[in-house]
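Protein record
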Amino acid sequence: MTTFVRNAWYVAAWSTEIDDALRRFTILGDNVVMFRKSDGSVAALEDRCPHRLLPLSKGKRIGDTVQCGYHGLTFDCSGACVRVPGQTNLPKSAYVQAFPIVEKHGIVWIWMGDPEKADPETVFDMPEFTDPAWAVHHGDALHLKSNYLNVAENLVDPAHVSFVHPTTLGNAASENVPVHVKTDGEAIVAWRWIRDAEPIGFFKAFGGFTGNVDRWHYYYLHTPCTAVIDFGSIETERKCAEEDRNQGVRIFALHFMTPVTETHTIDRWMHVRNAALDDPEAAERMDTMFRKAFDEDKEILEAVQAEELRPQKRRPIRIAIDKGPLVYRKRINELLELERTEDLAADPSPAFVYHD
């Protein structure tokens, strides 16, 4: 049974990944062909001709239409067939699915579910994207041989950084610091502060801290596939309050997870920072550190996935730090159940009288 929630916005690509050419992307197990139309906007169509099933990405563009490379059936950006060579009638069944697209902040979002439920206003956003006090930088597209649920759980789990990232994003000082979890909002939030401790490798290299610092990790997981990690450091003697984190070196690491198949996820990551705004090399230095840390995650997550695919003799255990991931799995299951059933009781028959 699939684990994919379809009625949601997913990142299909960075804007820089899509140009005039027909390019195939696989999202939630479906193949999609995307390209830029003559007006610069992005079109996204089912990448399979309904005639002999050749991928349309193997055809060619004719203006803002796509011609199948096998027998020339041609489709416009709404998915409608506008030409069948050798005949004048256009069968109603000769169409491909078109997917809603929203492009903003250099990110292309796609809706893979019911198009009538695709509300552009619900696409993820944050004010720092357009605030001149912050620098915005796109990173890479990290391919992981892992189910997206495991990847997402890793991104609402501050406890793992002490052990998986001891030289980059964590160190031993945080091993026994309690993690706080809040699950009653739109996002699941897990956080903790490590007070009066040695700075982690990331902020030794980037923040220039030499003495002890107060540092924080706030993990926000937006169902189904967007994670924001707010982390930073400030000198201990400044006694920073939680609401004053902008006074320190503060970074948002964003992760947009795109499920490709049940065992393949693309994590497109970027960062937003309030420091070194005028340093053209800062972003690349940070990318180098992020790549090292995310490669450490990749090794762990792919090993976990490999074991999940093997027969298990007993059930895995859960411990105190798993509160966030458990709530996340519950929310995903609730969304999946909504998509598996159709509610026909919205307008109850007068034969039934409800008292609740």
